[in-house]
Amino acid sequence: MYELGARKIAFQNVGPMGCIPECKTEFPKFNGSCVPDLLSMPTLNNKELNKTLTDLAERLEGFKFSIFDYFITLMDRIENPSDYGFVYGSTECYSSSSLCEYPSAYVFFDDGHPTQSVNEQLAKLFWAGDLSVTSPYNMKQLFEESND
């Protein structure tokens, strides 16, 4: 992408795969808790992504990036749903052939995908969130940053 002229690129790291409803169902021995091995892999990947992008920013003239911390922001909604206006953090709205009455009360729509309400919250954070969730810039700052 850089060779084609891209200088500002926004990234989202990998989410807490071990905490999605599908994983909790597939690994019943964890009694509905997050699957540790499936949490450690995204954590390692996310650390390497940050290191790699920081290195590229130092080596490639004009390259700037933003990383949205999808892992932390989604995990916080799973663990503390009521802090974000949700009732259910770790169960899905749609299961098999049954749809819940109020999808906006859920963090997850189905066994692997967040609801529209969650995605709207996260998109707003990616666009204008502080350094605790997006760094070294949020997307708005990244696009406003000069190309020098």
Automatic annotation (TrEMBL):
Source organism of the structure: Punica granatum
Keyword Signal belongs to the record: yes
Key words, A-Z: Signal
InterPro entries found in the cross-reference section: GDSL (IPR001087), GLIP1-5/GLL25 (IPR044552), SGNH_hydro_sf (IPR036514)
Keyword match Nucleotide-binding: no
Name of the protein this chain belongs to: GDSL esterase/lipase 7-like
Molecular function as annotated in GO: lipase activity
Record-stated family: Belongs to the 'GDSL' lipolytic enzyme family.
